[in-house]
Design a protein that fits this description.
Bound molecules: adenosine-5'-triphosphate, magnesium ion
Largest sheet: 6 strands, mixed
Strand order of the largest sheet: 6-7-8-3-9-10
Shape: globular
Order of helices and strands: EEEHEEHEHHHEHEHEEHH
Oligomer: single chain
Strand content: 25-35%
Number of strands: 10
Radius of gyration: 18 Å
CATH topology of the largest domain: Rossmann fold
Structural class: alpha/beta
Length: 248
Amino acid sequence: MGEPFVKIRDIHKSFGKTQVLKGVDLDVEKGDVVTLMGPSGTGKTTLLRCINLLERPEQGSITIGDETIECGKLTKKAMVSFRRNTTMVFQNYNLFKNKTVLENVMEGLVSVQKKSKEEAREIAMEELVKVNMEDKINAYPSEISGGQQQRAGIARALALKPKVILLDEPTSALDPELVGGVLDIIKDIAKTGITMIIVTHEMRFARKISTKVVFMDGGYIVETGAPDELFENPKEERTKKFLEKIMH
Ligand SMILES: Nc1ncnc2c1ncn2[C@@H]1O[C@H](COP(=O)(O)OP(=O)(O)OP(=O)(O)O)[C@@H](O)[C@H]1O
Ligand SMILES: [Mg+2]
């Protein structure tokens, strides 16, 4: 085995005096589907935002593919460049309200990746077909359901062809009857071999699709394992307690 595709080392992140991430290490192999779980307020969203550099860690390093950054001494330029390795799918979709579905998916391709409108449209359409949204391309976010908005959010993230896609509780804002459709789409995408890190409370889903499950608590990664191993035989007391609570 060579170096892992994604290598996160000793990530620290504070907000004011609150230390949220206290030294996070994580290895992710190419094509891995990693699910990240843990109690509310434990730093899961913050970790994803740090990997995407929406937040800047004070300390630690992140490697994706052949690019490594030292978070303590990041230039603006290095930040902008490193950010392109990943895209985020947000809990609340974060679509531009004044743009259509198609325009939302085209936006980053044109403004960040400097593609022509024609090329951006072609790529966007390809991704929108994959998430079964081809009949809604001209709709505005307010005209479609939460599930459809999230599928557009997923298409937007995929269109940029990141090395790693980061999903932060992609189904938690959805009405229960819309969750299944979005999870099915994510399952299909996972099968294509793209590397994914997903924060989710959907345990059955996590168990089915993950190659690796990570349990986080109190600003640290407490335990990591293959899904069957972690769900059946958690080693750490804190993992056991958490699983008991959420499985009822
Ligand atoms: N921008 C911010 N400013 C100040 N504090 C923040 C900020 N973002 C997050 N925090 C704090 O960091 C801690 C971790 O938050 P985070 O959102 O990462 O948790 P989480 O594990 O994703 O929780 P949840 O399961 O509820 O989404 C919380 O105590 C939160 O209040
Ligand atoms: Mg969160």
